């Protein structure tokens, strides 16, 4: 292996600053994926098009993220974490400025694609910087901090975008990224190490094309299925093509010497569980920022401002849980938390089906706040367990793989929400327009069922999985072992991670 070796963990103060910096970059990137939703009518007037036509501004950004994230791991290994991360922030910031200055839909879409390329590099490379700078015992706190942008941004994005659009101009949604980006570039260049893994690893062009094509066609197919006037033949054709290209991509990635997406981290059991069942659970959770405001405004007849204020209760729950996540994980461990809290989080999604237009705001806020608490804990536990047993040399590939799957599940969550809503209206036997509270109630039950499915993989985890990260000491580990050999049952999860 050429290039410098991976750096030792950074001093505590520098590591904390890197975590905060990366969390801020993640927040900026996640916010731009949802903030323009409430600004579409004003933007459409500026461009002289129909508001529906501007949906391409959202989908083009999300698709670009999914397609280009796999490039980030190779780029970080080739050019260094600091170089790629600061360049990504610079590209994202510059593209944001161009988005705010555009005068037509075509140039706006092009600018969003470039912005997505910058965002795609920020996500996994920023996480890699945190993983390399943080000690194992501090990993829980670090992951908790960089997880909250993915939870908070989709919730506060629409109301924040509506506020900026109402009292100023939609262009300021993008201009506000300029000072944040400049500060981020300066701090990243100063504090993030520029270590490389392998500067001579060739780029897997075929793998990149196959993965990008599979991601694009699959996401587009699910979006088509969720439309009220879905062209079924076209949707099924894209779904089939996406499935075949995805299968071909998997075969290639397993055989390639230097794959664009390294699948070897799946041999680590804790990582595999987090990426399989965890991805299913992420899809169910990602439905909430899409389906909830729609239920409030279309089903309950609320205005956008009222809807936005209620949705903020989920955000309050997300942040509140951050205060107790580490003690909870230390007390109960990953397996118990993922099982019990996962079932509870799915139950809170089902509880949203009980809300009606006559439900007092107090009870709506209470349900959403509790859902935000469980949602945040589950996200942090899954994301931390993902890297608990991954060896340092595999961190780059694992981070890229996790980011790609996370982005795919985020896009599929919105699509699944639309599909669940359409299925509900069909079962109720009325038009494709989801205009009744009963439609939304049934849709949330579908989403909750998917959430329950996502926890079944957790049963296969060892009771002490990830204990060296969470600090949890179970009764079995605390009790003196009858066996004296170092290969006793209590060491199974650690051995599994090390041997992978």
Automatic annotation (TrEMBL):
Give the region (Disordered) as residue ranges: 478-500
- SUPFAM superfamilies, alphabetized: MFS general substrate transporter (SSF103473)
Q: Where is the composition biased (Basic and acidic residues)?
A: 491-500
List the PROSITE patterns: MFS (PS50850)
Name the predominant localization.
Answer: membrane
Topology in membrane = Multi-pass membrane protein
The GO molecular function terms of this record are: transmembrane transporter activity
Q: Where is the Major facilitator superfamily (MFS) profile domain?
A: 18-466
Q: What UniProt keywords apply to this chain's record, in alphabetical order?
A: Cell membrane, Membrane, Transmembrane, Transmembrane helix, Transport
Q: Listed GO cellular component terms?
A: plasma membrane
UniProt entry tagged with the keyword Acyltransferase: no
Name-wise, this protein is DHA2 family efflux MFS transporter permease subunit
Natural source organism: Trinickia violacea
């Amino acid at each position: 292996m050429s290039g410098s070796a991976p750096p030792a963990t950074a001093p505590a103060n520098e590591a904390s600053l890197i975590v905060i910096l990366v969390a801020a970059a993640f927040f900026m990137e996640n916010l731009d994926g949802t903030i323009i939703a409430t600004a579409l009518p004003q933007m459409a007037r500026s461009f002289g098009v129909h508001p529906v036509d501007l949906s391409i501004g959202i989908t083009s950004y999300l698709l670009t993220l999914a397609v280009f994230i796999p490039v980030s791991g190779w780029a970080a290994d080739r050019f260094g974490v600091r170089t790629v991360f600061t360049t990504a922030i610079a590209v994202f910031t510059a593209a944001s400025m161009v988005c705010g200055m555009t005068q037509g839909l075509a140039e706006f879409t092009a600018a969003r694609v470039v912005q997505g390329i910058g965002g795609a590099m920020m996500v996994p490379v920023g996480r890699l910087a945190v993983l390399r700078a943080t000690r194992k015992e501090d990993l829980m706190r670090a992951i908790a901090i960089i997880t909250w942008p993915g939870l908070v941004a989709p919730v506060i994005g629409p109301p924040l975008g509506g506020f900026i659009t109402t009292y100023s101009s939609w262009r300021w949604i993008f201009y506000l990224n300029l000072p944040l980006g400049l500060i981020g570039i300066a701090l990243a260049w100063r504090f993030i190490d520029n270590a490389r893994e392998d500067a001579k690893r060739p780029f897997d062009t075929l793998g990149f094309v196959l993965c990008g094509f599979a991601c694009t066609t699959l996401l587009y197919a699910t979006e088509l299925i969720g439309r009220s006037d879905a062209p079924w033949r076209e949707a099924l054709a894209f779904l089939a093509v996406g499935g075949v290209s995805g299968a071909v991509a998997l075969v290639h990635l397993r055989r390639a010497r230097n794959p664009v997406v390294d699948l070897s981290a799946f041999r680590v059991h804790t990582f595999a569980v987090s990426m399989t069942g965890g991805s299913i659970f992420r899809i169910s959770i990602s439905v909430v920022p899409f389906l909830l405001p729609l239920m409030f405004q279309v089903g309950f007849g609320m205005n956008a401002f009222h809807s936005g204020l209620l949705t903020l209760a989920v955000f309050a729950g997300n942040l509140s849980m951050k205060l107790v996540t580490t003690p909870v994980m230390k007390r109960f461990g990953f397996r118990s938390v993922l099982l019990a809290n996962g079932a509870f989080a799915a139950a809170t999604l089902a509880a949203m089906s009980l809300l009606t237009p006559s439900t007092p705001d107090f009870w709506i806020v209470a349900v959403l706040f509790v859902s935000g608490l469980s949602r945040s804990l589950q996200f942090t536990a899954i994301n931390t367990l993902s890297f608990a047993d991954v060896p340092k040399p595999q961190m780059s590939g694992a981070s890229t793989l996790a980011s790609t799957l996370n982005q795919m599940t985020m896009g599929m969550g919105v699509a699944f929400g639309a599909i669940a809503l359409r299925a509900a209206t069909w079962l109720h036997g009325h038009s494709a327009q989801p205009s009744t509270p009963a439609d939304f109630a049934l849709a949330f039950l579908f989403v909750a069922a998917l959430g329950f499915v996502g926890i079944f993989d957790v049963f296969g985890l060892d009771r002490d999985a990830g204990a060296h990260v969470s600090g949890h000491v179970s009764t079995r580990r605390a009790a003196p072992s009858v066996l004296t050999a170092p290969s006793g049952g209590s060491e199974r999860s650690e051995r599994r991670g090390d041997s992978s």
